[in-house]
Amino acid sequence: MIDNELQTLLRDHVAGTEIPFSLRPEESVVRARVARLRKRRRRLAAGIVAAVAVAAVGAPTIVARRADGGRAPVGAEPTAPATVTPSTSGKDDLPRHRALAVTAEEVPALFASLYPGTVSETSPLRIRALGVEFLWNGFATSVRWMPASTGGLRNRETGRMERGRWQDAGPPLERCQTGTTTPARCHVDTTGAAWRTSLVRVDDTALRFVDLYTLDGWDIRLTSANRKDPTEPVLSSDPPFTAEQLLRAARSEVWFR
């Protein structure tokens, strides 16, 4: 997962059928609302995407406004150095996946048990594992768990593509560094998990990302935006959750058996 997620997110929604941030309304009203929002979104996304600097393939850069009015590449937050030396054990020694203990329908309520608030407009994400987008007190929020994997691997004997093992994707720090153009932003905690954070600003939209890469092969991402979607008014200058709060939720044991 690369760091210019906001740009990719906007492009995907312009081409797709979901409303911004993938927060879909109930099926009974989806057709009329999606048709109306897609027209508005195309106009809005064209301006937002144009504001996101896209560098050469393999070196994407996002430029954001600093609090003092200047402009600088989006950096990590917090900036604490790694606290643990990464594990040097072999990939095949990594433990198996913990089993998720929640369904898509249960995620928003469990999130609200960690951070009390009103959740609504729940929408499961179409991914290989589990992902949910919802509103928390009106703010677009998402939680998703992805099994680390190298994707399809070609069997040398049969010539067929087969699904790769998650162990082949590498240890947490390696997976974290692979997903960013600035590997120094990745840190390792006392559990051996790796993490990084990002805050993307485009005009008045702010979107915070937290990525956690666990020893047992889960790649976990939480996001928090400062509005419901790009067509709605900004609710605050910053997302409602800090990087530390999202990281704490990502590390919570309530999601696993």
Task: Characterize the structure shown.
This protein has about 260 residues and is of the alpha+beta class. It has one domain (about 65-255). Helices cover about 25% and strands about 25% of the residues. It is built from five helices and eleven strands; from the N terminus they run H-H-E-E-H-E-E-E-E-E-H-E-E-E-E-H. It has helices at about 5-15, 25-50, 105-115, 170-180, 245-250, and strands at about 65, 70-75, 120-125, 130-135, 140-145, 150-155, 160-165, 185-190, 195-200, 205-215, 220-225. The strands form three sheets. The protein has a seven-stranded antiparallel sheet with strand order 3-4-5-11-10-9-8, with helices on both faces. Strands 1-2 form a two-stranded antiparallel sheet. The chain has a two-stranded antiparallel sheet with strand order 6-7. Strand 6 and strand 7 (about 160-165) form a beta hairpin. Helix 1 crosses helix 2 (about 25-50). The longest helix is centred in the first third of the chain and has 25 residues, at about 25-50. The two termini are about 25 Å apart.
Mean pLDDT, as a whole number? 70
User: What Rg, in angstroms, do the CA atoms define?
Assistant: 19 Å
Low-confidence stretches: 9-38, 40-94
| Category by helix and strand content | alpha+beta
**Fraction in beta strands:** 15-25%
Specify the helix fraction band. Answer: 10-25%
Question: How many angstroms does the end-to-end distance come to?
Answer: 26 Å
